[in-house]
Amino acid sequence: SRSDITYFGAGPALLPTDVLEEAAGALLNYNATGLGVAEHSHRSALAAGIINQAKADLASCLDIPDDYEILFMQGGGTGQFSTSVYNFAGAWVARKYKEIFGDVQGDPTDHPELLNQLKQAVDDELKIDYLVTGGWSQKASVEGERLLGSKHINIAADARKTNGGKFGIIPDESTWKLSENAALVYFCDNETVDGVEFPTFPKSLEPGPDGKGPIVVADMSSNILTRKIPVRNFSAIFFGAQKNLGMTGITVVVIKKSFLPPTISQPSPTLMRYLGLPVPPIIFQYETAAKNNSLYNTLSIFDVYVAGQVLKKLLRIYPNKVEGQQAVTDKKARLIYDAIEAFPEIYKIIPNKAVRSRMNICFRVTKGDDIDAAEKAFLEEATAQGLTGLKGHRSLGGIRASNYNSVPLEGAEKLATFIRGFATS
Ligand code: PMP
């Protein structure tokens, strides 16, 4: 049964049982309305209430300032690989347009010289910087290149270059080749497949004393709500809900309002086409989502409801909000890493110690001569003890223990004990 198992899968992840039980009731009959929460109109006051409460609770958990907007979108983390490119390239063009056209009003085609100047600027200067530290940031950079073409893509760092072709490190910041005035600098805070996590916010991307700095966008799909984050250092943060927040089906974007109307509007499709840049699909425009409180089209209110219940629980358990969760997360990760490190002959942690992830603990079982047989035995014995979902990603092999928020402390203790026991058996 459910209570016999601790699931360490990489996502979708465990959800708290009490949240699921409550949600099961809400699916049938929400707040005694006779209709389930998934049946109510997304245009109802009830749906708006669920959305607004989830936004408020997320803002409270993470200390998100008022000048940031919270959007619920669809298309997953993968959708954001495209969305971030469309919107921040558009914002870059909008800023450049203002710089070049100044107060000149009317149709841009009435001013061919200015338009030409803008086209030249786009051709020469529009860059998106990627820090490639694992499979997910790499995928994002490939999508950026697919949408904009390689001349607009700058791989500011690639961990594989100085690590024998493999991920597992974060290149020293002094080696990063950041563009001047990039439309965005992209990084993935926690690489789910490779088990690499940024230990802290990168120094070279920090804003200066005037609050100004590079436009930073981060994928936090697999470590959101597990530690305190300096929200102000980011222009946007995105994450799929399905690991630490809720169910698959909604993607959350936290974005600085100054990238939305009235400060910045996406350039017209005609202008973007003239500049040779892609026009974002309407549902992938942040301003569409923002103007409609995430309800431009039918959103899964059930998914928002579940996320909301998870947030309520976090706020209930931890008076100090995400910092409380962080303490438990760090403790669970330490328990598991300590067990692995106690047997260097038997286990080998894959990523470099300084950047290893608290969320996705990736290691090989090197007991005996046959690694495959040792890992097979490890997985079989673990499963027999109710420790499941531990098989590593196919690209890396080995074992991956995902330590998301719904893995209880006792689950991590059980795994640590198993790791020690397997080593000495
Ligand atoms: N980014 C990261 C860090 C991920 O772990 C994942 C999925 N595991 C994705 C992006 C892709 O998310 P989705 O499957 O929601 O598109």
UniProtKB/TrEMBL annotation:
Highest taxon above the source species: Eukaryota
Pathway listed: Amino-acid biosynthesis; L-serine biosynthesis; L-serine from 3-phospho-D-glycerate: step 2/3
Leading EC class: transferase
Positions of transmembrane segments: none
Aminotransferase class V domain ranges (all copies): 7-91, 165-403
UniProt-listed GO biological process terms: L-serine biosynthetic process
Organism placement in taxonomy: Eukaryota, Fungi, Dikarya, Ascomycota, Pezizomycotina
UniProtKB keywords: Amino-acid biosynthesis, Aminotransferase, Pyridoxal phosphate, Serine biosynthesis, Transferase
Name the UniProt record assigns to this protein: phosphoserine transaminase
Cofactor: pyridoxal 5'-phosphate
Species this protein is from: Xylaria grammica
